């Protein structure tokens, strides 16, 4: 914290534009402060959770469960530096427990230290000691030291060794406020090898070939948008360069989102499930009220939330079955495509029953867990939503968007709606016909089966009449208008 800051070092740093944050921030002092905060966490005032933060949490939770890699999440926090810092610090300290798995406790401590480092960097920006172009980068690798079962219980995805790369920047607003901008990209095969080579290429001292996730996470980096104009995406590009030419840690394929389209496509994905995001944020609010009122324990609150998430994920994977394999595994994917056909035909109860009867095929997801009894939940007004009801409501709310109809005999590039089918095929379902039984022409059998495409192909905009930027901008306007009419709530402070 007493280290001097050289503006030129940040604007035109050595090591290909990357330096360690410890070069300007005293890491030892940060760690000492973190220990003091943990020891006195019960004395720190708890910051109320703003509505926007609940929606951000809900959206991030759902998208992280639905996608294995290649999704960009963006969160903005606006207010004074003191307000923003207190909000984030409160969440991290609330998540601390002396009973955590030892490895996870190390990670949580490092995350707390990184947050304190971010706050120190932002104070330097506020004081004019650092330019606004500076971003702090964190590389969160998969915890290879844990067994698959341990990792699953803690919320990690062992199937593809999922990790994240995250950047945090600061924007000065008029009126004396700031906006903290947090962007993170999910990636597969997030082990020490690519991280080690990435750091080695930047000439960072002290890296080892056995660099473990805690060590990598505990070495936040400083970059500048002068050198990395696309922020976190440019950092992900460099990590991929050191993972055998992969894209988001996976082998290149025709359905992966190009780097330059990642922000827009990720935003569009999130807009499509906005109805469920709002519902989950409302449910979390009711849970917190019950917990604060002493009606349920923290364990009951957390487990109830997990079960609600699972019901929502089942509904989303029914209405957009292209998510099913990433979310519930390959064995369960066929069930969701079949349930989607039933939902399109209006057979919602049959779709719900099919999913329920085949839950043993679902792989564990981040939000699985035991819950309080249905009787107690009902008594408290915290009923977990029925998957069938969520499918029905989502089918009514989900709008048609440009894409490719997933029905094999159709496969047209047109507007698609719930269940990823076009208006014509939906009309046939409504009349009692089943377009999935149509014989596929030989010309179409040579094409890739739309039912196996990823969302990136199903909803790709490049071959439809409207331009991507026009569609995204209209969706942003619609989203802002909807939120203003519904909540009249400012951005989180």
Could you give the topology of this structure?
Blueprint: H1 7-11, H2 14-17, E1 19-20, H3 27-39, H4 51-66, E2 72-79, H5 81-94, H6 102-126, E3 134-140, H7 148-153, E4 163-172, E5 178-187, H8 192-201, H9 213-217, E6 221-224, H10 232-241, H11 262-272, H12 274-292, H13 298-319, H14 324-328, H15 330-344, H16 348-357, H17 374-379, H18 387-397, E7 401-404, E8 413-416, H19 423-430, H20 442-445, H21 455-458, H22 468-486
Antiparallel strand pairs: 1-6, 2-5, 3-4, 3-6, 4-5, 7-8
Helix pairs in contact: 3-6, 4-12, 4-13, 5-6, 8-10, 11-22, 12-13, 13-15, 13-18, 15-16, 16-18
Please supply descriptive tags for the structure shown above:
493 residues; 8 strands; disordered N terminus; six-stranded antiparallel sheet; alpha+beta; 22 helices; disordered C terminus; two-stranded antiparallel ribbon
What does this protein structure show overall?
- By secondary structure, the protein is α+β, with helices and mostly antiparallel strands.
- 49% of the residues lie in helices and 10% in strands.
- The chain has helices spanning 7-11, 14-17, 27-39, 51-66, 81-94, 102-126, 148-153, 192-201, 213-217, 232-241, 262-272, 274-292, 298-319, 324-328, 330-344, 348-357, 374-379, 387-397, 423-430, 442-445, 455-458, 468-486; strands at 19-20, 72-79, 134-140, 163-172, 178-187, 221-224, 401-404, 413-416.
- The strands form two sheets. It has a six-stranded antiparallel sheet with strand order 1-6-3-4-5-2, with helices on both faces.
- Helix 3 (27-39) packs across helix 6, helix 4 (51-66) packs across helix 13 and helix 12 runs antiparallel to helix 13.
- It starts with 6 loop residues before the first helix and ends in a 7-residue tail after the last helix.
């Amino acid at each position: 914290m007493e280290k001097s800051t050289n503006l030129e070092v940040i604007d035109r740093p050595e090591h290909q534009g990357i330096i360690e944050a410890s070069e300007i921030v005293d890491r030892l002092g940060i760690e000492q402060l973190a220990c003091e905060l943990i020891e006195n966490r019960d004395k720190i005032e708890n910051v109320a959770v703003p509505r926007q933060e609940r929606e951000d949490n809900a959206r991030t939770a759902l998208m992280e469960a639905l996608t294995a890699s290649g999704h960009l999440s963006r969160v903005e926090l606006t207010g004074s530096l003191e307000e923003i810092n207190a909000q984030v610090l409160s969440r991290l300290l609330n998540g601390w427990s002396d009973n955590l798995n030892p490895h996870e406790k190390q990670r949580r401590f490092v995350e707390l230290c990184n947050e304190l480092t971010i706050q120190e960097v932002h104070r330097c920006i506020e004081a004019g000691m650092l330019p606004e172009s500076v971003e702090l980068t964190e590389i969160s690798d998969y915890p290879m030291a844990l067994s698959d079962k341990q990792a699953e219980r803690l919320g990690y995805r062992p199937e593809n060794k999922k990790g994240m790369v995250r950047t945090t920047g600061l924007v000065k607003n008029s009126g004396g406020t700031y906006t903290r901008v947090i962007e993170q990209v999910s990636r597969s095969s997030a082990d020490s090898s690519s991280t080690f080579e990435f750091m080695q290429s930047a000439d960072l001292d002290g890296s080892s070939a056995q660099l473990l996730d805690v060590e990598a996470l505990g070495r936040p980096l400083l970059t500048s948008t002068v050198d990395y104009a696309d922020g976190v995406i440019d950092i992900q590009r460099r990590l991929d360069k050191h993972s055998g030419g992969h894209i988001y840690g996976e082998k290149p394929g025709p359905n992966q989102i190009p780097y330059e389209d990642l922000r827009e496509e990720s935003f569009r994905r999130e807009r499509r499930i906005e109805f469920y995001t709002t519902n989950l944020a409302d449910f979390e609010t009711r849970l917190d009220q019950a917990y604060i009122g002493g009606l349920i324990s923290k364990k009951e609150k957390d487990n109830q939330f997990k079960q609600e998430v699972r019901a929502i994920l089942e509904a989303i994977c029914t209405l957009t079955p292209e998510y099913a394999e990433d979310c519930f595994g390959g064995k369960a994917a066929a069930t969701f495509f079949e349930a989607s056909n039933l939902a399109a035909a209006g057979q919602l109860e049959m779709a719900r029953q099919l999913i329920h009867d085949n839950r043993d095929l679902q792989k564990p997801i981040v939000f699985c867990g035991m819950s309080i009894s249905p009787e107690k939940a009902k008594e408290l007004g915290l009923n977990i939503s029925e998957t069938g009801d969520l499918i029905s409501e989502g089918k009514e709310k989900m709008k048609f968007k440009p894409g490719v109809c997933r029905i094999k005999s159709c496969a047209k590039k047109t507007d698609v709606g719930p269940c990823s089918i076009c208006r014509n095929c939906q009309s046939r379902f409504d009349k009692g016909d089943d377009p999935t039984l149509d014989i596929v022409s030989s010309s179409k059998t040579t094409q890739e089966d739309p039912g196996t495409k990823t969302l990136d192909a199903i909803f790709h905009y490049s071959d439809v009449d409207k331009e991507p930027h026009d569609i995204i901008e209209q969706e942003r306007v619609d989203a802002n208008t909807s939120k203003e009419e519904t909540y009249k709530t400012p951005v989180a402070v």
